[in-house]
Structures are given as structure tokens and as C-alpha cells.
């Protein structure tokens, strides 16, 4: 476990940059239209979803506080009116950093109850060697739910639902029914191996179950906003799911057979997937290490 924590700390620090490491003045917010009245904003941190209509905006995640003015300007540019609701997909700093600014602007923040619970007290994420202080009261979600909540805005029925023990223990996904768009938060890292935050209650089995749920909702026209990476569709999500299941099952069999982490890594259970998924911050070796640690603990 000590080696896992050290290697993650070295390799993931850049994936979740501290404020001092980013020149926010140079960050540009890119807007991509993904459906009728629904947009994806890309900057630094988790991808943002925006449902914009004459009766206001529902926004999903908000990256970092220094980007709040740029994000608000990008939302205003699509003609959505005021940001009325802000949904947090989970508690990580690169998704909730702008909460306080948006609450001051009048938005009502909504998240799973575990998001508020984790944000309310100091957190330590051992793999990142990251101490995250308790969020100020003005940044905490104002409304929490345990299973799901619906919004009726801009002519759309927006379904927000919890998925258990996946990326974290507080994950929510957002289904814009009429627009046929799903925002998956960090359940889905498009084009890279995902970070499963075991210290926050995550698990690879939960990740697979959450992906399966979206595959059951999606059709060939569904647009899928990942937590990180480019806009995707059902075909790409299916390939991501196949990769997760194949690698997980190989490692699970190895764990059941009593193999060590070193033996599993030497067998290269991700080999045929590395060209597509192994170019991000989570290297193939590290991805195997995370899954091995998860599955060995649940043996």
C-alpha cells in the first residue's frame, strides 16, 4: 500500500493541479454544443455541463474558483440567463472549486449527501498525499439527496441520480432526457485510464456498474460528457466498459490465485488497451496497481 500511495502521489499531482501550479489568466473556456440547449465547457479541471433556457441555467460542476468569472461569461454567451442550479458530481476540488462564487451569485447547489459530508470536514487522499481542508460554509451544497432528484428546466426533464461506490462514494450522473445527453462526472475518463479514488469509497466494481447503467439509458444518438477528456458517444463508452471489465476480471483471477502485485504487473493485463487508454496520467502500471489494491482488499 505504501508503494501505491507514493507512485500515485508522484504521477497524479499534475492531474489535480494546485492553484499555484496553474496560470488561470491564460486558461480559455471552450464551449461545445452537445444537444438542444445543452453545452460542455472545457477549461482546467472537470468538464462542465450547462443546460441553458429562457428560465435559467442548470450547471454541472465548476472547476476552480479563479475561473468562475470566465465560466460565468461562457454561460452568458450561450444565452442561458442566470445560473439557478449547480449540481456537483462528486466532492473533488477540480469539480467544486467554484461553488462559493456561484452561490454568492444566487445559484442553489445540489449534490449527493456524501459530497456535503466530505466537503464539511478536512479530507486526506493518501494516493495524492493531498490534505484538503474543510470547505467554507458558503461552498457547501445547499440541497442534498440520497438516491435521485429531478429538475424541470428549459423544457427538459433533467434526472440526477446517485451511483454507489464508483469513482467516490458520492457520485452523481446527470441525464438530460429531452436533449439526450448524459454527464457522467469522473465515472468516465475518456481516452485514459480512470482514477478510482479508493480513499473516498470508490471501487472498480462500482465504476463498471455505473457505466452499465448509462449504457442502458443511452442510444446511438446519445452524447456523453465525461469528467475528463473529449465528448463521447455510446460506442466509445462501450469500449471503455469493455476495457474496465477485461482488466478487472484478469486481475481478480490473479488475486484469487494468490499472485503478488509484481506478478500481475509483469503479466501486463492491460497490454492491448494501452495504446488507446494508457496515455494519460494513470499509466498502465499504476492502473493495475490501483485495481489490484481494490480487489485484493475485497477478496
Mean pLDDT across every amino acid position: 93
Fold-level CATH name: Metallo-beta-lactamase, Chain A
CATH architecture: 4-Layer Sandwich
CATH class: Alpha Beta
**How many domains, in number, for the residues?**
1
Uncertain parts:
9-15
Largest sheet: 7 strands, mixed
Structural class: alpha/beta
Give the strand line-up of the largest sheet. 1-2-3-4-5-6-9
CATH superfamily: Ribonuclease Z/Hydroxyacylglutathione hydrolase-like
Order of helices and strands: HEEEEHEHHEHEEEEEEEHEEHHHH
Helix proportion range: 25-40%
Overall shape: it is globular
Taking Cα atoms only, what radius of gyration do you get, to the nearest Å? 19 Å
Number of strands: 15
Beta content = 15-25%
**First-last Cα distance:** 16 Å
Number of helical runs?
Answer: 10
What does this structure look like?
With 299 residues, this protein is an alpha/beta fold. The protein has a single domain (2-246), classed as Metallo-beta-lactamase, Chain A (4-Layer Sandwich), CATH 3.60.15.10. The protein contains 10 helices and 15 strands. A 7-stranded mixed sheet has the order 1-2-3-4-5-6-9. The protein has a 6-stranded mixed sheet with strand order 10-11-12-13-14-15. It has a two-stranded antiparallel sheet with strand order 7-8. Residues 9-15 have low confidence and may be disordered.
Summarize the structure.
With 299 residues, the chain is of the alpha/beta class. The chain has helices spanning 2-12, 68-77, 93-96, 99-104, 113-120, 204-217, 234-256, 261-266, 274-277, 284-297, and strands spanning 30-35, 38-42, 48-53, 56-60, 83-87, 108-112, 123-125, 130-132, 143-145, 148-153, 156-162, 172-176, 181-183, 223-225, 232-233.
Amino acid at each position: 500500500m505504501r508503494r501505491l500511495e507514493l507512485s500515485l502521489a508522484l504521477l497524479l499531482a499534475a492531474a489535480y493541479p494546485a492553484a499555484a501550479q496553474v496560470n488561470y489568466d491564460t486558461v480559455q473556456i471552450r464551449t461545445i454544443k452537445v444537444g438542444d440547449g445543452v453545452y460542455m465547457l472545457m477549461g482546467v479541471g472537470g468538464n462542465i455541463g450547462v443546460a441553458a433556457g429562457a428560465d435559467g441555467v442548470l450547471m454541472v460542476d465548476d472547476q476552480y474558483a479563479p475561473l468562475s468569472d470566465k465560466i460565468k461569461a461562457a454561460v452568458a454567451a450561450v444565452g442561458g440567463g442566470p445560473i439557478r442550479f449547480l449540481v456537483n458530481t462528486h466532492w473533488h476540488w477540480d469539480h467544486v472549486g467554484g461553488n462559493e462564487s456561484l452561490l454568492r451569485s444566487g445559484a442553489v447547489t445540489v449534490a449527493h449527501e456524501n459530497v456535503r459530508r466530505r466537503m464539511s470536514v478536512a479530507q486526506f487522499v493518501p494516493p495524492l498525499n493531498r490534505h484538503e481542508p474543510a470547505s467554507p460554509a458558503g461552498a457547501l451544497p445547499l440541497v442534498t439527496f440520497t438516491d435521485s432528484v429531478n429538475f424541470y428546466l428549459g423544457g427538459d426533464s433533467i434526472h440526477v441520480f446517485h451511483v454507489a461506490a464508483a469513482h467516490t462514494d458520492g457520485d452523481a450522473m446527470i441525464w438530460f432526457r429531452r436533449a439526450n445527453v448524459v454527464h457522467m462526472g469522473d465515472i468516465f475518463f475518456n481516452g485514459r485510464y480512470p482514477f478510482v479514488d479508493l480513499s473516498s469509497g470508490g471501487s472498480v466494481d462500482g465504476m463498471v456498474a455505473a457505466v452499465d447503467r448509462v449504457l442502458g439509458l443511452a442510444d446511438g444518438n446519445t452524447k456523453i460528457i465525461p469528467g475528463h477528456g473529449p465528448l463521447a458517444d455510446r460506442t466509445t463508452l462501450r469500449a471503455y466498459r469493455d476495457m474496465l471489465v477485461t482488466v478487472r476480471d484478469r486481475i481478480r483471477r490473479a488475486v484469487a490465485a494468490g499472485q503478488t502485485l509484481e506478478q500481475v504487473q509483469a503479466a501486463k493485463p492491460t497490454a492491448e488497451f494501452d495504446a488507446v487508454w494508457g496515455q494519460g496520467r494513470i499509466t498502465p502500471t499504476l492502473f493495475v496497481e490501483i485495481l489490484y489494491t481494490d480487489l485484493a482488499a475485497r477478496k
